[in-house]
Design goal:
The chain has 978 residues and is an all-alpha fold. It contains 40 helices and 4 strands.
Length: 978
């Protein structure tokens, strides 16, 4: 297999796995875990196989065309840096899958967890492997969405819902900033291709747009990586299941911002703006996170704030404008992922086996859980920077940079002291974690009796701790080659020289490290008891900096402000909103005409060219249409049924107009749409409140209403006259040279179809059609969701007068049952409509098969097939139809969209862009010669989705009657019992 295929497979496999996991049954815990593990390991294998191509500074690029004529493509790009991050994402992801299999309870919907998890894995891989900035933004926002779903997995827990909402709000805001920043960056460079951007550092830094670009991009990175003051979302995200916390908040989501800053470091760093923003944010985050971690009583809370602190350390390194600091940042990113993931898993085991994470209730777990305790202590020691572990090496590099970067900048002057202080805090909270959880008297009054976890639940921690020890003892043999490839990917031939040796002699960084270790121990001995007895569990001197409270206050302020704006600018009546909309549109069109100098152009005139002649029959046709439109507007207020009929009459005139102008395809579609919409409108009108001819109101109110109607009439007249005049002017002038002739000439040679309209929809502009049917599906689902909670007005629940008269006639004849008159009335129409069903289905099939060469196509076939179902509902009622036809319109919508997307994705397998069509004709028995264009598969998806969306709206309206019948039956039963 080629390197490009392996790269694309690694990036896309998690999304396919996520789709499969989503359809597994709720209790398929082992199957879902096995699926997630196989998918993650398969992607990891693909990435690992590509290491030889990137080890020497090479790059693997896979380009999948999406819209080639616009230069839009999926670009996956693998170099040493993205390889290292991809291995982190997948390797720790595989370990988390194994751990989650034993952590999650049997009654939890585990397949849903793994569906979200694999989606998040795919989104993270998309970030690190993207070769296009816009593509990176898309995957960036996907991580926010999937993290929201994962954090809120236990949605019945209010803390989980609040944490998910906070994380989504803050990180999605950063995503919007990233989109704006990348657009500016692309404007500076002239391309969104990552390789081009990375080669344009001087042009970017010298551009006047550099400052807004760097501010927006850093906003995204700092929010995603929980940097001060945006760090408040991370502790609240601890409401997620522990496997998710171990993954999102150690190796993946919080590292996305770090990756972005490392990736763009060569082109954005080296300026005062970068130094002050990144360095200051990193320094503040490192200190605030470390200080807050000291006072946490919850094990996951301590680890959350320690994660914030270490992320601040990495960010600070990236802000120092030193190549060696970037090397240290990359190295510590790997080290932090290993020891922090193992610590989160250890905290989860303690919670799983004891029933609590409160360190005030835990003690002496060494006796009951010696293996877990040993593993957790080694990982905590790595976090504290104890020698011979991986955390010590990257911390030494950090302290070395703190000393070597002494300069005139205030941040440089304070850096050695603050770095040593933060390291001492790290030792303090690491020691507190070990001492409170594993030593002291035996635990008592725990929800569960503590014991060791299952063997394979502990295995991921063992592997991660082994990595901490192996990197700490032999760094050049373990992490050295991968780190060198990553550094070379960032700096190219200008990569700095560095040394991963364990011993560098007695020097200032070693003295600072020893001082931090001794200071941390001394601080714990001096203040440990007071810290443990702190009732609030929050940091001293920071009681008022409650991130959750500040966030909620900010959100409340935004909501209150939005409501004030709505009161000032909004309208409680639909008429007012429409009035404002039409006036703005009218003013904008006039302003655009004046602004473009339309009236000042030579030869410009307000009067169009004279018509050569008007056919009196065509004029009469349009006179009828105009009369229907005016009549519908006049009757709409009090006589809705006649207004709907008149509106349908105007639509029929439009259909006949298309026939007159030799557009049979449009005429057919218009006619079919008028039939379906007319029926749906009639069904909807049944449940609207009644309108009264006279409503008691004061004279002043009536006068105000009259003025409002006159104003609305004037606006409507001006708007309609303007559109009519514009249309008249366009149609009476020579058409400009456009692309219409190209479509006519190329429809058959390139798409194998003679029906240009249908070829345009399913081939040349198929991407537009895909968006349109997606919108149609969303509309159908929205109507269904709204009508499920719709309760008609009280006066519309009364039975219609026609039904009352029919029942009175039945009561007047002693040999007739109630309902016989209604049944007799619908007998012949019912039989006719029932027997029409197969004929309409055949008509829909005929329209579908002929649509590539003759008037028809997927949309017309879908509407025709919908009419077949509409007839059955009208003839026999909802209950009769649904008992005999098992219609699942929501599934039809999903299948239709899936078929359309898959028909567009198949060309990728043959190296062609998305939705590339091919065609061939075949002779079939009975049917004769039919086109076998691949666009027919896309058209089939259109048919299925149109039927699903239309029938879903029909079902939603029809079931209002069923609900009324059930309510009436319930009321009658209650009266009988009374």
């Amino acid at each position: 297999m080629s390197a490009e295929f392996l790269l694309a497979a690694a990036a896309l496999l998690p999304f396919f796995g996520s789709a499969v996991a989503a359809v597994l049954p709720r209790n398929a815990r082992t199957t879902a875990a096995l699926l997630a593990g196989v998918v993650t390991l398969a992607s990891l294998g693909c990435i690992a196989a590509l290491y030889p191509q990137v080890a020497g500074g090479g790059t693997v690029v896979q380009r999948i065309d999406w819209l080639p004529t616009l230069g839009v493509a999926f670009v996956f790009r693998l170099d040493g840096l993205s390889w290292l991050f991809a291995v982190l994402v997948l390797a720790i992801g595989a370990l988390v899958v194994l751990y989650a299999r034993y952590y999650m309870a049997p009654d939890d919907p585990v397949p849903r967890l793994f569906a979200f998890f694999l989606g998040f894995v795919g989104a993270m891989l998309g970030i690190v492997l993207s070769g296009n900035l816009i593509q990176l933004v898309v995957f960036w926002e996907l991580t926010s969405v999937f993290s929201f779903l994962l954090i809120g997995y236990w949605y019945d827990n209010p803390s989980a819902r609040d944490g998910a909402r906070m994380a989504l709000t803050i990180t999605a805001l950063g995503g919007l900033c990233l989109l704006a920043g990348t657009v500016i960056l692309g404007r500076i460079v002239g391309s969104y291709d990552l390789a081009v951007v990375l080669a344009s550092g001087d042009a970017i830094r010298s551009s006047p747009l550099y400052l807004p670009a760097v501010l927006l991009i850093l906003m995204a990175a700092l929010t995603k990586s929980a940097q001060f003051p945006f760090h408040v979302w991370l502790p609240r995200a601890m409401a997620a299941p522990t496997p998710i916390s171990a993954y999102l908040h150690s190796a993946t989501m919080v590292k996305a911002g770090i990756f972005l800053m490392i990736r763009l470091w060569p082109v954005l760093s080296g300026t005062d703006a970068w130094y002050w923003i990144v360095g200051s944010a990193g320094m503040a985050t490192m200190l605030v996170g470390a200080w807050s971690a000291i006072f946490q009583h919850d094990l996951k809370g301590l680890l959350a704030y320690s994660t914030i602190s270490h992320l601040g350390l990495i960010t600070l390194l990236l802000g120092l404008d030193s190549p060696l600091a970037v090397v240290a940042a990359i190295f510590h990113t790997v080290n932090h992922a290993t020891f922090k993931a193992s610590l989160f898993m250890a905290a989860g085991i303690i919670d799983h086996e004891t029933g609590t994470r409160d360190m005030r209730r835990l003690s002496g777990l060494w006796r009951a859980m010696p293996y877990t305790a040993t593993l957790a202590m080694v990982a905590a020691a790595a976090m504290a920077g104890v020698p011979l572990l991986n955390g010590f090496l990257s911390k030494e590099m950090f302290l070395s940079e703190a000393v070597d970067n002494l300069g005139e900048h205030p941040l440089h002057l304070a850096l050695p002291v603050l770095a040593t202080l933060a390291s001492a805090f790290t030792v303090l909270y690491s020691l507190r974690f070990i001492r409170q959880a594993f030593f002291g008297p035996p635990p008592h009054d725990l929800p569960k009796a503590p014991h060791e976890p299952p063997r394979y639940m502990r295995l991921p921690i063992e592997l991660l701790v082994f990595a901490c020890v192996a990197i700490g003892l032999v760094p050049n043999l373990t992490i050295g080659p991968a780190l060198e490839s990553a550094v070379r990917a960032v700096f190219g031939d200008a990569a700095p020289a560095y040394d991963l040796a364990i011993w560098h002699g007695v020097n200032a960084p070693l003295a600072m490290s020893v001082g931090a270790l001794a200071g941390g121990v001394a601080l714990y001995v001096s203040f440990g008891r007071r810290i443990n007895s702190n009732p609030r569990g929050g940091p001293w001197l920071m009681d008022r900096l409650d991130g959750g409270w500040l966030f909620e206050r900010g959100m409340s302020g935004l909501v209150h402000g939005a409501r004030r704006i709505e009161v000032v600018l909004g309208a409680t009546r639909l008429q007012g909103q429409l009035r404002a909309l039409f006036l703005v549109a009218l003013a904008a069109s006039v302003a655009a005409a004046f602004g473009a100098g339309f009236f000042a152009m030579p030869g410009a005139t307000l009067s169009p060219a004279p018509l050569a002649g008007i056919d009196p029959v065509f004029a009469l046709l349009w006179f009828v249409g105009a009369a229907c439109a005016v009549g519908a507007a006049r009757r709409a207020k009090y006589h809705r049924l006649s207004a709907v009929m008149l509106t349908s009459g105007a639509g029929l005139v439009g259909s006949l107009t298309f026939v007159w102008l030799s557009a049979p395809d449009l005429a057919m579609t218009q006619l079919l749409v008028e039939v379906v919409t007319g029926v749906l409108l009639l069904l909807g009108l049944r449940w609207l409140p009644k309108r009264k001819q006279e409503i008691p109101a004061p004279a002043a109110e009536k006068a105000r209403a009259r003025r409002r109607r006159i104003t609305d009439f004037g606006i409507a007249t001006a708007f309609g006259a303007g559109l009519a005049g514009l249309a008249y002017a366009v149609m009476t002038r020579p058409a400009p040279e456009g692309i219409a002739r190209w479509f006519v000439d190329e429809a058959y040679p390139q798409a194998g179809g003679r029906n240009v309209v249908n070829v345009l929809l399913v081939d040349f502009r198929a991407f537009d059609t895909l968006g349109e049917i997606s919108v149609l599906g969303v509309v159908g689902l929205t109507v269904f969701a709204l009508l499920r909670r719709f309760r008609p007005a009280a006066d519309s629940l009364e039975r219609p007068k026609q039904q009352l008269r029919q029942e009175a006639a039945d009561h007047a004849h002693e040999h007739r049952e109630v309902g016989d008159t209604a049944a007799d009335t619908m007998l012949i129409p019912g039989v006719v409509m029932t027997w029409l069903f197969p004929f309409v289905v055949v008509l829909a099939l005929h329209l579908f098969l002929r649509g590539h060469d003759l008037p028809g196509g997927g949309f017309a076939a879908g509407i025709a097939l919908s009419i077949a179902f509409v007839l059955q509902y009208m003839a026999c009622g909802a209950e009769w139809v649904e008992e005999r036809l098992r219609i699942r319109p929501i599934a039809w919508i999903g299948v239709g969209l899936l078929v359309a997307v898959l028909s567009g994705a198949v060309p990728w397998l043959f190296g062609n862009p998305f939705l590339t069509a091919s065609f061939q004709y075949a002779e079939l028995p009975i049917l004769g010669k039919i086109p076998l264009a691949s666009a027919v598969a896309f058209d089939l998806g259109v048919v299925v989705l149109v039927v699903g969306a239309t029938v879903l709206m029909l079902v939603a309206l029809a079931r209002q009657s069923l609900r009324r019948q059930r309510e009436a039956s319930t009321e009658a039963a209650a009266e009988t019992q009374a």
